């Protein structure tokens, strides 16, 4: 009886590992399809635009745990050509909405649950969170904003999957 239970448990583990590895391959393929070829395969970076990249992070087993959209200069150590610009880059409203829709198509967030503002402002950035059934979306809004432009206040996006 113990041998059967051990066999079933090991079989389940193998299936779960195969599913996670398959998830990683599928996520990276969807990122390539939506954002173009990876600009850094080691870090799983994909170019969003001239100033921002998307990074997909996986567990050791290959399960998607996080997607980040950050300025390229955050990776200046690995890419010396991506130097910090004089002005902080921001995502335009249309780019932000498009990127969030694309990420949601890569791995759905699930139903919206609630929005939370922490009230914490550091480095002129206001941190906000949106909670979904399968993910938490955190983004940083620039404290300074020109309402006459199409510049969204968003400086970065982090999505952690449950």
Question: What is the structure about, briefly put?
Answer:
The chain has 162 residues and is of the alpha+beta class.
Q: What is the rounded distance between the termini?
A: 34 Å
Low-confidence stretches: 6-18
Within the largest sheet, what's the order of strands?
1-2-3-7-6-5-4
Average pLDDT across residues?
86
Question: How big is the Rg?
Answer: 19 Å
Query: How would you sum up the major sheet?
Result: 7 strands, antiparallel
- Specify the structural class: alpha+beta
Fraction of residues in β-strands? 25-35%
**Overall geometry:** globular
Considering DSSP H and I runs of 4 or more, what fraction of the residues is helical?
25-40%
How do the SSEs run, as a string of H and E?
Answer: HEEEHEEEE
DSSP summary, beta strand count: 7
Number of H/I helices: 2
Features:
alpha+beta; globular; seven-stranded antiparallel sheet; 30% helix; 162 residues
